[in-house]
Amino acid sequence: MKKKIISLCLVAALAVVAIAGTSLAYFTDKDAKTNTFTLGNVDIELTEKNWATPAAAVPDVEYAKDPVVTNIGANDAWIRVDVTLSDAAAFTAAAARHQITDLATIFADHDETKWTLAGTPVYDKEADTLTYSYYYNTVLAVDASTEPLFTSVTIPAVFDNDDMEAIGADFTIDVTAHAIQTADSYSTVAGAFANYGE
Fold it and tell me: 10 φ, ψ to 5°?
């Protein structure tokens, strides 16, 4: 009889544990959240609709050159355009000889209300280049285009044979456009490029 009571007690205790274990399962839960980010992109196109490479550039002749940036990506963007002159030492020496203090004057119809010169031009001694960087003053919306940075280039009329020979026959003006997706962390084009770097 005593063994029966102990056995019944053990069965009852196991039943309580089984019920408690089952009821504990009703008080547990698990949940997960998946946050989907739709990634955009920044994509620009640089065009010069009216540019035609001259056979031999000469002073005092206006050559059509009209860099325009178009936003063909999925996000609004801040824009910077770099204009790099080759043979910079000879070009700046010729300009200085003729009292030309700002080489940017070779670019015609530059609209300062649309484009701002970003600091002073940067001379790269090793490459012998001089780079002017310009910020587009407003956000460039998707599918929109900037106004031309300038519309033409003219080698100064005062440059003579010695100047042109020193500059060389392979003088180039390279235009490179950069874009950064807009973000809340910066509200100006200068701030955007300062945060991003290169």
Answer: -65, -40
pLDDT (0 to 100) of residue 72:
93
CA distance 30 to 117: 57
Strands 152-154 and 173-181: unpaired
Selection from 176, 175, 168 nearest residue 93 by Cα = 168
Phi, psi for 42 (deg, rounded to 5): -115, 125
3-state SS string for the chain: CHHHHHHHHHHHHHHHHHHHHHHHHCCCCCCCCCCCCCCCCCCEEEEECCCCCCCCCCCCCEEECCEEEEECCCCCEEEEEEEEECCHHHHHHHHHHCCCCCHHHHEECCCCCCEEECCCCEEECCCCEEEEEEEECCCECCCCECCCCCCEEECCCCCCHHHHHHHCCCCCEEEEEEEEECECCECCHHHHHHHHCC
pLDDT, tens digit (0-9, with 9 covering 90-100), for 2-29: 555 545 444 554 555 555 555 555 666 6
Tally the C-alpha atoms within 13 A of residue 52's C-alpha that lie toward its C-beta.
5
